[in-house]
User: What shape does this take?
Amino acid sequence: MTFVVTENCIKCKFTDCVDVCPVDCFHEGPNFLVIDPDECIDCTLCEPECPANAIFAEDELPDGQEAFIELNAELAKRWPSITEVKPALPDADDWNGKEGKIDLLEK
Ligand code: SF4
Ligand code: F3S
Assistant: This one.
């Protein structure tokens, strides 16, 4: 099992999740974070920390978010690790909750 970052992180990237992960399994892209499924120990700590409610257990993903399982695994291999909190993206609060953000994912 693993936890998965889903669509609502896109263009928000609050990074509160990074602060609590005991095994540093977050990786950072231009406007999205992903979890490396090979590193995640299912500790559950990050899930309640995300202001965008974007993190879910793999087997509790909301409908329509299934593609993010593969996206997290794929992008974690390409993107650098992030271990420290940084400021959220500009307009993160405006983008929080918007639909259709998967089309804006920058890889
Ligand atoms: Fe890290 Fe735990 Fe979240 Fe997995 S569940 S990404 S180990 S904080
Ligand atoms: Fe993204 Fe939420 Fe972390 S918006 S960067 S998953 S705190």
